[in-house]
Amino acid sequence: MTLTTMILKMGDGFGKTCAIFFLTLLFSLPLGMVVALLRMSKNRLISALTRAVISVLRGTPLMLQLLAVTYGPYYLFGISVSRNKLIPVVVAFSINYAAYFAEIYRGGIESMPVGQYEAAQVLGYTKFQTFMRIILPQVIKRILPSVTNEVVTLVKDTSMAFTVSYQEMFTIGKQIANSQTSFVPFLVAGAFYYVFNLLVDFIMGRAEKHLSYYR
What is the structure's pLDDT at 2? Predict the structure, then answer.
């Protein structure tokens, strides 16, 4: 197999890798905010339960969570495994990353000075208006570097989808490497991931500069 043919075949898998990446961000970013607000709830029971869930999601391997979401329903309830493996893969990734984003959000929100809440109250803002118009924009600026680190990690973590036989780029590269008895497909896959991460880092870097107070 020529290098060009190999790249084209892995390019097909790269599209599925991108699907995991973008769908995970689409669901995990807003879900992470919901989880963060539940974690900060004044209701001790809700806060404790949310903290426990976050602890489990952050304390167990993503690979295990992938297997649990994909095959767990079959072993527990006899529900057949979804033919479209993208669905359980995105569900597992979204839940896992939402836990990490939740802690990032929480750190950003709790770092805001109390005086800003008090000033907004004096100006007649509701709690919702205060959060959406004053607190959240500043939180986004503060947490963007941490979010960038998680997004870069997500690019590499998409390769774990091979554990449930989802035909993303790394899985295809592994199959080619086994059939050709060659390490070259892994190098090609590594190049794909590296270029993808360079692009992500560039975009997130531009966003950080655009939101910076000190341009």
Answer: 73
Question: What's the sign of the alpha-carbon dihedral 12, 16, 19, 25?
Answer: negative
> Within a domain: residue 16?
yes
Q: What is the pLDDT of residue 213?
A: 55
Instruction: Name the nearest CA neighbour of 84 among 164, 154, 155, 26.
Output: 164
Task: Answer yes or no: is 172 within a domain.
Answer: no
Instruction: Give residues with Cβ within 8 angstroms of 132, minimum separation 6.
Output: none
How far, in Å, CA of 213 to CA of 103, rounded?
24
Residues of the chain with pLDDT under 70: 1, 212-215
53: number of Cβ within 10 Å: 17
- Return d(Cα 10, Cα 1) in angstroms, integer: 12
Residue 45 maps to which CATH number?
1.10.3720.10
CA distances from residue 85 to 18, 44, 163, 173 in whole angstroms, order as listed: 15, 37, 11, 18
- Whether 23 and 90 have beta carbons less than 8 Å apart is answered as yes
Say how many domains are in the chain.
Answer: 1
Judge whether 89 lies within some domain. Answer: yes
Tens digit of pLDDT for each residue in 176-188? 888 888 888 888 8
d(CA 134, CA 157): 34
Domain range for residue 158?
A: 12-165+193-211
Tokens matching residue 1: 């197999």
